[in-house]
Each structure stands twice: as C-alpha cells, then as structure tokens.
Amino acid sequence: MTPNGHGDPMLVIDKERHVFNVARRTFVDPAILEAEREKIFGRCWLYLGHTSELAKPGDFVTRQVGGRHIIFARNPKGELRALLNTCAHRGAKVCRERAGNAKSFQCFYHGWIFGLDGNLRNLPDEEAYPADFKARSTSGLQPVPRFDTYRGFAFVCFDADAVSLSDYLAGAKEYIDIVADQSDLGMAIVGGTQEYSIRANWKLLAENSFDGYHAATNHATYLDYLKNTNGGLANVALKGVSHDLGNGHAVVEYSAPWGRPVAQWIPMWGDQGKVEIDAIYERLVERHGKERADRIATRNRNLVIFPNLVINDIMAITVRTFYPTAPDFMLINAWALAPAEESKWAREYRLFNFLEFLGPGGFATPDDVEALEQCQRGYANMAEVGWNDMSKGMGRETPSYDDEAQMRAFWAQWNQRIFEAAA
Amino acid sequence: MTIDLALPNPTRAQVEDFLFLEADLIDEWRLPEWLALFSDDAHYYVPSTDVAPDASPENNLFYIADDRFRLGERVKRLMKRTAHAEFPRSKLRHLVSNVRIRERAGDEWQVSSAFITYRTKEGQTDVFFGTNLHQLVWEGEGLRIREKRCLLASDGLRPQGRVSIIL
C-alpha cells in the first residue's frame, strides 16, 4: 500500500541496470503533499534560524517553519526559546512583527501578556479565573516539542519522539563544522533576507541546490560573466565528488575557479587582496592545521540537509530554506553567513560574490527559478511521460560532483519516510 | 557640498521626461541605450525588503547591488538567448508617477518616484511596485543616472520569484 491509497511506487530502482526513476506524480499530487506535511515536515528536524540573529536578551524573530508560526527568542537569562506563536486563549498570533527586542509579548485581542519563556504573566480581569490559572502550563505560549542547536544552527522538530538533533544530522555535522570553523568569533548572518518564491514543487529546489550537472548550460551567462571580468578566475579546475551523509543528507565537495573570501585568491582582488587572503589562510592553518585549512579554503561545498536546509559554502555562504504551500508553489528564505570578525574588505567581496551568482537578482538563480518552473510545466504531460531519470553516475565507484548520487540519497530518504507507516 | 550655480536647474517636467524615457527603453528591451543613461561611476541597487531604505550593500544582503561594470554585464546577459529567465523575453510596462525633486547637493539631484511594473511571460503576469530613488547629474548636454535605488514595497519577491528584469 502506498500513501493515501495510491497503489503505484514512486521510485523505480534497478542497481544492476543503473535505473533510478522518480515518478513525476510526486511533484503534482496534493495527496503526496499531504503525506509530506505529516511524515516529513511533521517529523524531521527543520531549520529555524541562526543563533547570531538573536545577539542580545530580548531579541526575537518570527518565522514560519513547517507551516507553523514560531517565535525564536532569547530570554533575559540569554537562553534560546522556540515558541508557537498562538495565544493560549483564542489563538491569535501574539507577535506580529518580524524581528525586534521585547520584554514580553502581548496578544492584542484580549490583552494577555506572555514572558519570553512563554509563561502567562498578566491578563485583564484576572479575578474571573481560578487562582492557579496563570501557573497552568496550558495558559502560556507553548514551546515547540523539540528545539536544539548545532554550532549556531537552530532547529525545531514537531515530533516529540524524534531522534536527537545530533543523531539526525549524522554525517552532515562534519560539513556544518567546516562552515563553523571558518571563524574565531563565530559565524553570523549578514543583515537582509532574500525572500522569494518559485512556482514549482519544493523537492525540485532540494535537487537543484546540489546539482553540479546543470552549471554549464543553465548558467552559461554566469560563466560568460566570469570570463569577462578581468582576472576574475583562479587557475583551478572544477572537479570533485559527492557524499551520502546519511538520513537523506548529502553534499558535493569540489574545487572551482572563483574567489572565496575564506580563502582562495583571484587575480581580480589585486596585491592588497592577496595580503588579506593570505592572512585569512594563515589563521586557518594556525587553528586547524594545513590539511583541514586547505579543505576549508580551497574546496566548495553544496550541502542539503534533509528535507529543506541548504548550506552552500561556495563563492559566499548561503543558508536557504523553503516550504511548499501547494504542490506547485514554494516560499524560499535565504541568508548570507559570514565570519563575525571578517574585515570590511572581505565582507564587501563576499557580498559582491554572493550577488553575482546567488539570489533572485543574481546572474544564476533566476535561471534556476525558470528551469524549475519549466519542469513543473512539463509535468502537465505526466500521463504520457511519467518519470524523471536520476541515474547519472550510478555505475561509478566514486560519484562525481556532477553526478546524481546526492539526489538519489535525498529521494531514498523521501521514499522511506513517505512509505514507512504503510510498509 | 557647495552648489554649482553654473549648472542648469532641471524642471520637474524635464526630470519626468527623463524618467519616462528610461521606462520606455526598458520596456522596449533597448537595454544598451538604457545603460547609456548611467554615468561611469553609477550604481544600481535593489535592497532586500527587510533592511533600512538607506542600507549599504557592503554590510547588508541585497537582491541587486551592481557597480557600473556589473550593470554592463547584466545588460549583456539580458540581451542573450542564454539568459533563460528572460528568454523568450517578458513583456514589460513600467508606470512612473509621483515624481518629486527632493534635494539638490552640488552637481546632484535627488529624485523620488513611485513605480508599478508589470511583467508578463507565458501567460503569467507579475506586479512589482515601490519607490525609485534616482541620483541624477548633468553630464555633457543631459541628465545621467549616478545611482538608482529601487525600494520594493512588497514583502520580498513574493509571488514574483525573481527580479530578472530591470526595475
């Protein structure tokens, strides 16, 4: 039996014949989205935000995660909290600002006031309620069932019985460490959120985020641009491998000719830039030894943490999450991450690098958006052409960064989670 | 900054004509001619919608922060068939209104205007709207753009999804 009564398999895998096909119905069927809401977004650890976004006690951001409205806050003791943004009384969202600093949250409907730990502090006409009413756990803002952080990345989970965040992240921790180790003082989100949408199924963006195969054709104009920038490239070949990190997480790790503010110099950055980059590199070697410093500095990584967190440590670092609102529509939030102590010079180049490639106004992402939307359009032909081929590199001992092993890891996990209850 | 009295003072009608010309050039995909409206030290900015209107792209994440070189490359890209997001090209219509000359400082005029831009591609129409802040300068015989800052009034790029056209 398959989800919601459908009898057909969603994946066809034949390792001997190198077949790995994904049913196009997974991108269009509302019943599949319902199953994903319950079995994936309802049970997996989901990215909430970065601890650097809450620098001071009282700082908060509000965010939608897995369809829920969440307040992510730092209480007066400096502890982090993830609260469900709904009044215990009638349900209104109690915090309607997207970010700020607060001592408490007041529901505007009947005036109930909650502390940053969620406790109900005051309510008008309190005498009308029993003496212990404020102290009841059901009177406050409810915390999300599970909340934890790993090296600055904060996650929530709506399944109280889920495995720990550490076990969930599995092999992805090694790659989060490589990002976190780029700073002495800690990595921090740079002000400004790129918010956009794509008229396509969310899983297409998960695939696209570590798809090395589409670069030459889909991003031809970006590569043209790099060639036009005088001395814009280092003499480094684009090559690398992909790794299955367990639990559906996967990464491609590769060398590339573009400049990395941590820490690969390109001629365009000039002699002064060479001094800056050399100093960053020396510091990495001091802290981590040459081998690890080289990996941090000279390798690029596109990491997808199942189901919907992307950390791309490339010419800049982008942190990206996305959620479906319909089978053919998703909302995306993206941020730039950088070492907190980064010099003005390096920060400027990092953001310049970010915008020339990444984001919905860059020279690459708009073409990704177009590609994903055209895939979604193509699924109108699903009755006659029903399968996506994901077999690239299946016969290879070590899959290349531009093969599809990383996507097969994602899909295998997706399939297992969607079908686990029925199996 | 001292004001150079030798420079002519443009009237609002002249500034409006200039902004309407700019809008038409974009709508007609005459982007190399549009680019020629910019001075050599020009910048084109579209900030993210959750940062301050005067935020700097040196320490804030924008949607677009082009110097003159990258703006030229943006135009080259948009004229190519391989700019897939805009091939086949969108149909566009920019409406410019509420034009105000805010301030004159030295050789620069600060001009604000409201914009509504419609973009249609494959039967899908998106609307972009907000405020444009132009820094205009006299160069040779005419006005040139030294800075154009497009402040989107929407919450991010939803549902537009991308800013693959010139706003």
Summary?
The complex is a heterodimer of chains A (423) and B (167). By secondary structure, chain A is of the alpha+beta class.
How would you describe the overall organization of this protein?
The complex is a heterodimer of chains A (423) and B (167). By secondary structure, chain A is α+β, with helices and mostly antiparallel strands. Chain A has helices spanning 30-41, 165-169, 172-180, 202-209, 215-218, 220-228, 270-298, 344-357, 365-378, 405-419; strands at residues 11-14, 19-23, 46-50, 59-65, 68-74, 80-84, 99-101, 104-106, 113-115, 120-122, 146-150, 153-157, 187-198, 239-246, 249-255, 300-305, 309-313, 317-326, 329-339, 387-389. Chain A has a seven-stranded antiparallel beta sheet, with helices on both faces. In chain A, strands 6-5-4-7 form a four-stranded antiparallel beta sheet, with no helix packed on it. Chain A is globular, with a radius of gyration of 23 Å. Chain A starts with 10 loop residues before the first strand and ends with a helix. The model of chain A is unreliable at 1-5 (pLDDT under 50). With 167 residues, chain B is of the alpha+beta class. Chain B has helices at residues 12-27, 31-35, 68-78; strands at residues 38-47, 62-67, 91-105, 108-121, 124-139, 142-152. The longest helix of chain B has 16 residues, at 12-27. Chain B: GO terms for molecular function: dioxygenase activity.
C-alpha-based Rg of chain A, rounded: 23 Å
String of helices and strands of chain B: HHEEHEEEE
- Approximately how much beta-strand content do the residues of chain B carry? 35-45%
In CATH terms, what is the fold-level topology of chain B? Nuclear Transport Factor 2, Chain: A
Helix content of chain A: 25-40%
Counting DSSP H or I runs of 4 or more residues, the number of helices of chain B is 3
Mean pLDDT over all positions of chain A: 95
GO molecular function (chain B): dioxygenase activity
Family (chain B): Belongs to the bacterial ring-hydroxylating dioxygenase beta subunit family.
InterPro entries (chain B): NTF2-like_dom_sf, Rng_hydr_dOase-bsu
Keywords (chain B): Dioxygenase, Oxidoreductase
